[in-house]
Design a protein that fits this description.
The complex is a heterodimer of chains A (319) and B (539). Chain A is mainly alpha-helical. Helices cover 76% and strands 0% of the residues of chain A. Chain B is α+β, with helices and mostly antiparallel strands.
């Protein structure tokens, strides 16, 4: 188990480094540069003074060779210093630290909703004996995955904020402000949970142990929830690990539609301004969350299913 | 003017389009359908909530160039002068009066006494000097302010309330520049901070409102300055502002802004595009609009390109554009087709509408004269060359692409092949500078005709490669005269030269359009089509 954890951690570090390097190269490859972006922010035309841009570029070190810049940034990043945002002058780490709680709230609530709603749909669809209800419920996940998130968001705002006045349309104010954005973000996520869970529930219900349980006289609900769901939840759990990454990416759209502060908005702004230090910080941070979630998922697996043991070679059965 | 973002396009494109759209979009205008200012009796108190589309990431008026943020930070600072939006005339504000030397190189301002900043420090000639000395150090971060003071020789304190600004060259535009937010006067302590500190912490001004809180990407909150008594001579209310509090919320999605206004969650919104007009009409909302002064939207030619060197080709393009169709189909209601290179709200604007008519037959005959013959596919050729034009554009307004697609069709019908090339915002300046382009879709907001000199003088950047000639003389002379009648005549001459020679093909005036709840009164545009909120009240 210890070797397994160490190996996983080493893999995590490798992923972080790769994320950092790739994002650096992409940003460097893009046309334009952060200093021009900063100077032309809000200007009507391209009338910015090229000489002054050159001066500023020198001040920020963007005129150094790419490899030198990369080495400098990376060596600081390893020590947890991502430098200062080019567009605001604030340290990247504090910008991220300020935005993080908002996004954690949003993605946490969305994940909870997704699991409850998606799980509920899957369980009821596979349990019900009514054909029409099953068909209806099973048609929801593909729909949920395919509708654009921003459209769902605008629809919810129109109905529940502009018409019914139940929730605010924008902002970060408290629990009421969280409902609509979390619901928006939960739609595609919950749909995926439902899809995966329904499929593995149906598979599980065909298995011999279910027959055995039934033969022993267990009730339908008991068989469904205690036996089948327990086994079926493993693939769904693996998907949840991936969904966390999607939720964070989805926050760019949702935070924009609902004018919420958070990592998504920070990311969008940083990308537009080609704010290299800030984008780097966001990428590494996002990768960190993603890697950590998957690590937790992998470690939880053996607890749910004792049959999954960590092979002596250090290779996880489900990895 | 933001459209609904399309999140199905690749993320980079989406993000930049989305953000830049809201960032740059500024529009302005004379008041539109039924802004019922003046009804009922003005009263003090209340909070105005205003939803804007973007946050510039900075709350220093001297550095901010995005209208969406200028709306709020403008209220923090006073300027030496103000500009009458009706007449374009410069009138007193912090300066009671001023003297300009006859060669327009020195400007002496006589300040009001008794003005204080919100940190209780006093307005003196020294504070003004501190401001003007610090502005050039902002460099490109405060490009607007820095540009207004370019060529400054010295700022001298004559006595505690008299300050003299001297330039190396004649600089008639400076007087108007002192009326802008960019040269708004900040306390000495504020101007001593670094540009980044001023951006994130805000600045201390002498304005009718004081910055209370700035949450990046979320909101800017201002509170009324008690004891304020030195408002612009243009304002109707004397003393303090009516409103207790101003809250500017950042709401990037145009549809959410419009819905929030309709459902009463906010009192006013910026950047109302054509798509949201219908929904807002008929409700408890008035649309207020005013054309932005300055250089209108149009095609900025690279006048040194082989095909475009020929004035007849440029004039043919000018005649082939149906401005009215573009204004009516693409832009918000009330947008005017261009009638000069300057918008009609710019001081010293001259109507050249007769040169800017749509006349496809005339365009074709000019192209025939220039030796471009109709080809088999409808595109004209000369020898083996096709008559083609690449137009560079940046996604800083949702209207850019549809407008250009219409122009593409219109030019095709006279035999000109147009390719549209979208650039990143950051690519435009380097492209213009390099000279490797045919034409660019462009506009500049400025309430002084000197903007023509910045854009078309061959002695400055000359991004458009205009050939040296009479135009230069007119542009330099208007910058050097303090005689208003003479300046008007020189500016008229410059507009005629630019339009008749078709160095630039004017298309439409950019219009600022706000949505304002009918309970909000006297929310007025200033000369630059931005807003002042001192006289605004809710009732």
């Amino acid at each position: 188990m210890r070797r397994y954890v160490i190996k996983r951690l080493a893999q995590a570090v490798g992923v972080l480094w790769a994320a950092y390097t790739v994002s650096f190269l992409v940003l460097d490859y893009l046309p334009g540069d952060p200093v021009t972006a900063m100077a032309s922010a809000g200007m009507d035309s391209g009338q910015v003074d090229p000489e002054q841009i050159a001066v500023l570029r020198h001040e920020y070190g963007f005129d150094k060779p790419v490899l030198v810049q990369y080495a400098e940034y990376l060596s600081r990043a390893v020590r947890g210093d991502f430098g200062d945002s080019v567009s605001t002058g604030r340290p990247v780490t504090s910008t991220l630290a300020d935005a993080l709680p908002q996004t954690l709230q949003l993605t946490g609530a969305a994940l909870l909703l997704a699991v409850v709603l998606g799980g509920g749909v899957a369980v009821v669809a596979t349990y019900t004996a009514r054909r029409w209800l099953r068909q209806l419920l099973l048609s929801l996940p593909p729909l949920g995955v395919s509708v654009p998130t921003f459209w769902v968001g605008l629809l919810l705002v129109e109905a529940f904020s502009f018409r019914l006045h139940w929730f605010p349309a924008f902002g970060n104010d408290g629990l009421r402000g969280l409902v609509l954005p979390a619901l928006t973000l939960a739609v595609p996520t919950g749909a995926q949970v439902a899809q995966v869970l329904a499929k593995s529930l149906l598979t599980a219900l065909d298995q011999a142990y279910v027959e055995t349980a039934r033969a022993k006289g267990a009730g339908r609900w008991r068989v469904h929830l205690r036996h089948a769901l327990r086994n079926a939840s493993l693939p769904a759990l693996t998907v949840v690990g991936l969904l966390v990454g999607q939720l964070i990416a989805g926050s760019v759209v949702v935070e924009t539609v609902f004018s919420r502060d958070g990592l998504g908005r920070v990311t969008a702004a940083a990308v537009t301004a080609q704010d290299i230090p800030l984008v780097q910080g966001v990428v590494v941070f996002g990768a960190l969350i993603f890697v950590a979630t998957n690590l937790v998922v992998d470690l939880v697996h053996p607890l749910l299913d004792p049959r999954i043991v960590v092979a002596s070679g250090g290779k996880a059965a489900l990895a | 003017m933001t459209a609904l973002p399309d999140f199905r396009t690749p993320r980079w494109a989406t993000l930049s389009a989305l953000l830049t759209t809201s960032v740059l979009l500024t529009a302005c205008g004379s008041s539109g359908e039924g802004s019922d200012s003046g009804s009922g009796r003005a009263k003090s108190g209340g909070t105005l909530t205003f939803a804007v589309g973007s946050d510039a990431g900075c709350v220093d008026p001297q550095q901010v160039a995005s209208n969406e943020t200028i709306y709020s930070v403008r209220q923090i600072v006073d300027s030496l002068t103000d500009q009458d939006p009706e007449t374009g005339k410069i009138v007193p504000w912090l300066a009671k009066s001023w003297d300009v030397s006859s060669d327009a190189t020195t400007f002496t301002f006589h300040l009001r006494s008794g003005v204080t900043f919100s940190d209780r420090s006093k307005l003196t000639a020294q504070v003004v000097k501190d401001n003007f000395d610090a502005v050039p150090k902002l460099g490109v971060l405060g490009a607007l302010a820095e540009g207004y003071l370019s060529g400054v020789k010295s700022t001298t304190v004559i006595d505690p309330l008299t300050v003299k600004v001297a330039f190396k060259q004649p600089n008639a535009q400076f007087l108007q520049a002192t009326s802008t937010h960019s040269l708004g006067i900040e306390s000495s302590a504020s101007v001593k901070k670094t540009p980044q500190q001023r951006c994130s912490d805000g600045v201390v001004g002498s304005g009718p409102f004081v910055l209370k809180q700035y949450v990046q990407n979320q909101s800017i909150t201002l509170a009324r300055r008690t004891g304020y008594a030195w408002g612009s001579s243009l304002w109707s209310k004397k003393g303090e502002a009516y409103l207790d509090k101003l809250v500017f919320k950042v709401v990037p999605e145009a549809g959410v802004r419009a819905g929030s206004l309709q459902s009463g969650q906010v009192d006013a919104i910026s950047s109302v595009g054509k798509a949201n007009e219908a929904g807002l009409r008929g409700s408890q909302v008035a649309l207020q609009r005013r054309a932005n002064p300055g250089v209108v939207f149009g095609l900025a030619f690279n006048n040194s390109r082989p095909a475009l060197k020929d004035a007849r080709v440029r004039q043919a393009i000018r005649y082939a554009i149906d401005r009215k169709q573009i204004a009516d189909t693409v832009f918000p209601t009330g947008t005017r087709a261009a009638t000069s290179v300057l918008a009609h709200t710019t001081p010293d604007y001259t109507s050249l509408a007769s040169n800017l008519t749509f006349d496809a037959a005339r365009a074709k005959s000019l192209l025939d004269q220039a030796g471009w013959k109709s080809g088999s596919d409808g595109i004209r050729t000369k020898g083996s060359r096709k008559l083609g034009l690449t137009i560079n554009w940046i996604p800083n307004a949702a209207t850019n692409q549809p407008a250009l697609e219409l122009i593409q069709q219109q030019l095709k019908s006279v035999g000109i092949d147009v390719v549209l090339k979208q650039l990143q915002v950051t690519q435009l300046a380097p492209t213009l500078q390099s000279g490797d382009y045919d034409a660019a879709w462009s506009n500049v907001t400025r309430a002084d005709p000197d903007i023509l000199r910045s854009s078309f003088s061959t002695q400055l950047a000359n991004f458009y490669r205009v050939p040296a000639g009479d135009l230069d003389a007119a542009l330099s002379a208007q910058a050097a005269t303090t005689d208003t009648a003479k300046r008007k005549q020189l500016v008229a001459q410059a507009q005629e030269s630019i339009v008749q020679n078709a160095y630039y093909a004017p298309v439409v005036e950019l219009q600022t359009q706000l949505g304002v709840s009918k309970k909000v009164h006297d929310l007025d545009f200033d000369a630059s089509s931005r807003i002042q909120l001192h006289d605004t009240w809710i009732g």
